[in-house]
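Database export, one record per block. Field names are fixed; values are copied verbatim from the stored entry.
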Amino acid sequence: MAWVGSGLMMATQVDQWDPSALAIDLTAEDGKLALWGSSITPNFATDTTYNSAPWNSGQSTGAGYTTGGPLALGSTLTVSSGFAKYDLDNIELTETTLISEGGLLYFPNKSNRALLAVWWGEALETQDGTFLITWHSDGVARLSN
C-alpha cells in the first residue's frame, strides 16, 4: 500500500490536549517539511514521529534537497467562518532533481513529533528545476466546529 490521502496525525492531536500537554506552538515557525517518495504508507491514527517507522525510510533524495526538509515558515493560525485555519508560506526548492509524492510536517524541537502528512496526489518530479509547494487557499489544515 502507499499514499492514499492527506491528514492530521491523530496521536499528536490527542497529545496536544491530554495530560501529556505536547504544546506544539504552530506559530513558532520551527516545523520542517520532509519530502517522501511513493513507498510510504501513512497511518494517521498511530504514526507519531519523523525518523521512526514508517517515516524512517523512503525519504526523497536528490540535488537541492536536504534530508529532513526545509523549515516551514510564515505560519499563521486564524479563525474565520466557523473554521480554524493553519497556513504556511509556499515552499520553493530551487535547482532540485528529486521525486516526491508527499510531505510530512514535523517539529524537531518536540522530539520530531509529526503534525500532518500531505499527499500531492501523484509523484512529482524535477530535473534541475524548482519544486514548488503551493498550499490551498483554505490553508495547510483546517478544523471545523
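Remark 1: The longest strand covers residues 113-133.
Remark 2: The radius of gyration is 15 Å.
End of record.
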